[in-house]
Amino acid sequence: MEQKTFTFAEKDGIKLSADLITGKEKASQTIIYFHGGGLLYGSRNDLNDAYIGQFLENGFNVLLADYRLAPEVKLPEIYEDASDLILYFRHHAESLGLPDKEFILFGQSSGAFLALMLASDPTLPRPCAILSFYGYSSVSSPWLKERNKYFNTFPLISESLKNAMIRQTPLTMGSVDTRYPLYVYSRQSGKWLDLVFGENYSEADLKPFELDPERDFHFLPPVFLAHSFADEDVPIEESEKIKNGTLVSELFTVHDLPHDFDTHTAGAEGRMAYDAAIRFLQEVKKNQ
Fold first, then answer.
1. How far apart (Å, rounded) are the C-alpha atoms in residues 239 and 190?
2. Backbone phi, then psi, for 255, in 5-degree steps?
């Protein structure tokens, strides 16, 4: 395994970095990964090494990407970061030592949301496929504005504690210890949109970040979805809706497991989900 770290952009004095991980022989397709965390926390390095190894062993490179986090910046700036990474990759694939510019977009939760938005953007290069693990396709989904019952079983996060977690300058990494309570606050209060768009957002601000099932799903590239029926954060109906509206797709489901069911690699379901995703990608490649 070989890893190359590079800077693909600099914003607000913050360097945005990415890690390109390849096997002994560099593959023709690269999986570009955007981490989850509700756009409020997380890190490009949170994809478990076991899953990275599964991709490498089956003939894929893996590219792990930074993006700036909300609420220090807002969703349009986050989307710009993700777009910049794709454009950088397409323009520099050869200098990175890769034999081809083909790529697959992969995200978990809010990272899957970014992947779906990017894949539907006609101004960006088109990916070969999307891997959406417990993701969603619109910031206007009603559950994002509701006080979530599961998160309200946690100790209440106060306004003052929420404010104390917000930095004065942008950041690209937020640990579970220092930033997860910010996400808990957003779901307890139903104010996630306030954090990612700003308190004075309008419906017009949301429109660019909504995929319409009738208008947009039909034009998505092949999509592999994975979701738990017991997801306490993102309803499985989000993945079912995408599955039902796309031309080429597959939905892998698990029962009685939490939102990020693949976090613990000791669980067979996590390995099985990635095996299924790889088979899906191999089938897509064969049919190209």
1. 21
2. -120, 150
